[in-house]
Amino acid sequence: MSGGRVRIAVLAAIAAATLCMAGVADDPADRLSNPAQEARARHLFQQLRCVVCQNESIDDSQVEIAGDIRRIVRAQIAAGRTDADVRAYLVQRYGQFILLTPPLNPGNLALWLTPFAVILLGGGYLWIKSRQPAVEAPGLTEEEQRALEALDAEDRDMVPPHGGSTGGLANAHDAVAIKH
Amino acid sequence: MAEGGRVLIAELGAFCLMLALALSLAQAGLSAAGRLRLSPALQGAGEGAGIGAFLMVAMSFACLMSAFIRSDFSVMNVAYNSHTTQPMVYKISATWGSHEGSILLWNLIVTGFGALVILFGRRLPRNLKSTAVGVQGALGALFIAYTVFASSPFLRLANPPVDGNSLNPILQDPLMAIHPPILYCGYVGLSVVYSFAMAGLIEGRVDAAWARWVRPWTLAAWSFLTVGITLGSFWAYYELGWGGWWFWDPVENSSFMPWLAATALLHSAIVTEKRGSLGSWTVFLALVAFTLSMLGTFLTRSGVLTSVHAFAVDPKRGSILLGCVALAAGSAFSLFAWRAPQMKGGGLFAPVSREGALVLNNLFLSAGTATVLLGTYYPEIREALSGQPISVGPPFYARTFGPLMAITLLIVPVGPLLAWKRGDLVGALQRLWVAAAIALVSGIAVLALVQPRKGLAAAGVALGAWVMCGAVAELLDRVRAGKISTGETMRRLKGLPRGAWGTTLAHFGVGVFLLGAALEPSWKTENAQVLAAGQSLTVAAYQVKLDKVFSVEGPNFSAQRAQIEASKDGRPACTGQPEKRTFGDAGGQATSHVMICMQGLSDLYVVLGDSRALPGGGQGWLVTAHWNPWARLIWLGPFLMALGGLISLSDRRLRFALPKAARAKAGLAAEPAE
């Protein structure tokens, strides 16, 4: 059990205790007078986690600590720091936990690459299979057809599918009919 | 006398649950024995036990509910989760507001679905049915046993308190009262699909007919899941007080993953039904979908994932639950690994074909599911391995899940226009040129006209329009609108099976959602100011005026309520009363009730904050007003999707209910043209 684990547990407990408490919404008085700087601050807020909340950004959260972090961010931006500076400062203070976007580093590689790996592997598999000598899909066996037709018999009274197999469900019957 | 009867109701509930456990075990055992000996009597006995198990769980559930209705605080669960001043509807919904109660609800639904299979599965082959009923019984027994031995909601308190601890105030809301049962119907509805998949593997029969039987259950579960998730999202939107509707929170993800898997399953089962292939993949998806459902219900309660939605559960019970999930999932996947290779091979099909498009849909939905799965559990894994906590938040999903789904949605309109076996892509695209043109024009219009300019959002609008118009185009193409006489088109339109309407509506709903999801977050605006009575602030085109703030006493809370008047261009638009509630009985917890003023499909959303001293003296209130353009599309879309699912389902149910009449009619009907 790591220290971080315990800390999260403590934070979660605090979260549970404070989440629904009277909200300390972003105070209009705190806003930066320079609109460009305020816009930058708001953009940063959306990428920073309210560290005691569940995936809530400090832009959304009404918990007190979110307000504290908002003040830090605004103060740093007003002091002329870049976004990267502010992020680095907060990571130093609260750990990577505060970044809602996990940084692309060796430890997070599996996280970032998996979605694309699934597509590549799955797509590659399908592509290789489609290059193999075309084996016609066996389609439905006689027995399957009979079973399906028994089930299908009831909706035979729907619209006859038009020429070309282009309809939706209607073409279930084409598929079956073609095999005959 | 009456008093004595009441006192025993909790014990009666516990006793019924014990009986339900015994009956579920009997259901599993008798069905298995009946299947092995091919004895209709034993199989029938298994089915009878299944119905009995459901009745006993229902009875037990009724006992618990009665304890809540009567505020019987000698029952620990009631004392911890209810209060005498709670309105009746929340006393009732508190029945499933706790960990124990919600697991009992899970048991109720799992046995209830088992009973439905028994009652409505008359046309199933006897062997497949009794195997499926047996598996469902084993599943029920596993989780009823957990409830009886580790999570009983009927435990007594030696010294009952005078009053209870109250249901968590944020759950005291009409939507939160119905959200869990609907979501659970979705989660647990997939248990039927799981049982059919297991039965298919055991019987070695996963073919077109099998897929036909599984599809209605998948569709029903999927529709419930869709509604459940949508209700949860809408609840978050108005309850949490800042207008967010999706947070990628572990618990939200846990409900979203089975939905994604069930969506993939719905589509792959079509291929299995119509073409007899992809059988083992469809079975695999069925097992995955229900496994993700179990994870969704239980892992979030095991204490492994921390979440605002999680119930406080001690770690010991959490690990027992995990053990149950591992047993159910582990045995399923072992069986799959053993039996699937022996199943009929799928063969191959042309990439450009209806089934090709459906396979592509499955590839991307699987990748999407894997992304959400990893995003949800990676922080836990990472922290266990390196001790370093990380966060995986919305920006991660926007960069991974977003593009995956965008590609999936590009295919949606094309797939249904391709023929089975070998499709004509050029022909399909030609028939979609109007849809493509509308999509492009709307995307460009948004890019050119809407300020501030946002490229990605404009692309989202174009994609939404593409999916919506594509759905309509497919329907029109199906009835050959414009190519044949209007009368004939109308005749065809009337004759379309409900399943076709369902598909169109569901796909259209996806587009509607997408439109909302692209517009709302991109162009919402807000303004917050400390206002004295009579002052106003401006948000978007609206003037929001704070009339006054006054105190109100509710049944179990006291509130500060504001009278707000909103106007647009000097004309009154609407009035509302946002309030802050403090629940004294629940330890002073506060909730915010926002004012939502619908303007067309957009929302003016006003939140009352705390009171502040004004700089010039006097008292003011922090008022935050949000303008959420087109917000309603976000929930309208999924409701259309679920409606589409239910319409398709009514098609099938009709078939189940009236087989003979329909067959007689079929004899008179004209044969298909081909």
Features:
A: 180 residues; elongated; disordered N terminus; B: 674 residues; 6-stranded antiparallel β-sheet; 4-stranded antiparallel β-sheet; 21 helices; 63% helix; 11% strand; disordered C terminus
Overview in brief:
Chain A has 3 domains: 3-98, Helicase, Ruva Protein, domain 3, CATH 1.10.8.640; 106-135; 142-179, no CATH class. Helices cover 53% and strands 0% of the residues of chain A. Chain A is built from 7 helices and no strands.
Describe the structure.
The complex is a heterodimer of chains A (180) and B (674). Chain A has 180 residues and is an all-alpha fold. Chain A folds into three domains: 3-98, Cytochrome C biogenesis protein (Helicase, Ruva Protein, domain 3, Orthogonal Bundle); 106-135; 142-179, no CATH class. Helix content of chain A is 53%, strand content 0%. Chain A contains seven helices and no strands. Chain A has helices at 3-18, 35-45, 64-78, 83-94, 109-131, 142-152, 172-179. In chain A, helix 2 crosses helix 3 (64-78). Residues 1-24 and 154-180 of chain A have low confidence and may be disordered. Chain B has 674 residues and is an alpha+beta fold. Helices cover 63% and strands 11% of the residues of chain B. Chain B has helices at residues 2-7, 9-36, 40-69, 76-81, 88-93, 99-120, 126-150, 174-203, 208-239, 250-275, 279-298, 315-339, 354-386, 394-411, 425-431, 433-449, 455-478, 486-495, 498-523, 633-657, 659-668, and strands at 525-531, 536-539, 542-553, 558-568, 571-576, 579-583, 589-593, 595-599, 602-613, 619-628. In chain B, a hairpin with a 4-residue loop joins strand 3 (542-553) and strand 4 (558-568). In chain B, helix 8 runs antiparallel to helix 11. The longest helix of chain B is centred in the middle third of the chain and has 33 residues, at 354-386. The chains are: A mainly alpha (180), B alpha+beta (674). Chains A and B meet through helix 1, helix 5, helix 6 and helix 7 of A and helix 9, helix 10, helix 13, helix 14 and helix 15 of B.
